[in-house]
User: Fold these one by one.
Assistant:
Number 1:
Amino acid sequence: MPQPIEFFFDFSSPYGYLASRKIDALGAKYGRTVIWKPILLGAVFKLTGMAPLVSIPIKGDYVQRDFARFARFLGVDFKMPDNFPFSSIHAVRSFWWMEGRDHKGAHDLARHLYNKAFSGNDIASAQAVAAAAAEIGIDSAALLAGIESQEVKDRTRVENDAAIAQGVFGSPYIVIDGEPFWGADRLEQAAKWLETGGW
């Protein structure tokens, strides 16, 4: 059986969002499952010295244009949330809480939260995440309790540390058969890699 594609992303990453709208179809085309793995870029930035793109002078203005242009290029609906960049810790914890109960449910929750965020909505607070989860049938009270549990906090830290140890430094970060591809603009290369088995 071919190895799954690993898809690392931060819920506050516009480029990660754009990749999220294409990654499952890419995997399906080449007979690969896709394992979604949300991360917290804040912890990564502390190690790399990087910062959110929109906060970088001059470059920040450019990427605002590029987000929208790239979305149009991909044919993906896109609207920046008003409170951008936002903390994604509650969204990430909600994923790992759900992952411990229902793998497919965690995937569906991640897709829903990402789509919600980049339709211009707030998913920063625990309450906003729980409300969004309720829209797809997840018990919001159980989710709120779960994301505050030490078990889920520990799982989130372990998964983030494991991603960093694997070399993940940005969002999206896609790994195919051990080969890393950083950025939504690498989707075409990722597709070629899957088609050819690498080069």
Number 2:
Amino acid sequence: MTATLTTDSPAQAAPTDRIPVAVLGATGSVGQRFVQLLEHHPWFRLHEVVASQRSAGKTYANAADWRLDTLLPETAAALNVKSLGDALESRLVFSGLDSSVAGEAEDDYANRGCAVLSNSKNHRMDADVPLLLAEINADHLAAIEKQRARRRGFIVTNSNCSTMGLALAIAPIEKRWGIEQLHVTTMQAVSGAGYNGVSSLAILDNVIPYIGGEEEKIESEPRKILGHWDGNRFIDAPLRISAQTNRVPTIDGHLMTISLRMRDRDFDLAAIREALESFEGEPQRLRLPSAPKKPIHYIDAPDRPQPRLDRDRERGMSVSVGRLRPCPLLDIRMVALVHNTIRGAAGAALLNAELLSAKNLL
């Protein structure tokens, strides 16, 4: 599938026709967010929805227990749900599948020639699969050529939702000064566990200091994102990360406290703040439709960022940072916030697809 691009300016570098796309796991929480974000997308149009066998054959309106705060799009509501494994007309596929089925299904569609943009964990650490955070490591897309040597299509993955916020918040610091070690504690919203993921009696008046597999992801994924592709394999960034994760009674928005030690000790807080506020990447230079104008918003207030007040900045696609100050154990500490189901999930995959389209990689 090749998107024909106009070339007048980066802002106009859009496909001349909206590209038809499919959503795998369309009835789940991430799948619903994909459907929501695609409703008015200028480059892509929702053409097919795919879910489990029990939903197959129903209209999407009857199969999806719609839980988002906007109305179910009429065009999506009328689509007939296909079963996972069915042939697709779309060559661009967004995957919101649960990890229990995502690995095999995404391989299957990539082998059939699809470009699979995945939110699942299964292929994130594969040797030739980009773990893409569009503002940071667009050059990692070079690995697609190697991946295509073993199958017709390819897979590009998002990071873990907390990793997304962490990696964006520290990328300007890693780029300019380098990071030697980092400790992060997350306070993660219940939406990250899916609609039925945490019972109300378990989370109300409570904090759960364990989320299965999350600490391992946060300790490994940023190293791949901030590393580099050497033409044959990914080389991890040489930072050490220690993570502790907690589930808290917030609906959306993962908050994290971060302390880190720099490699280059010649720094000051004003320069770090300036690096955060001025940071931009390929999505901003190309003016991609889902890209935030500013990937990082620094909030100069002693009690911010907060999930309820700051998670929806730039349609949920930016990361908010605040409370930058010295750390008595390491060098600096700060607080970061990411909207976990938009920037940390479906929105990030959509932005990744826009970057692929703008670079003629679809």
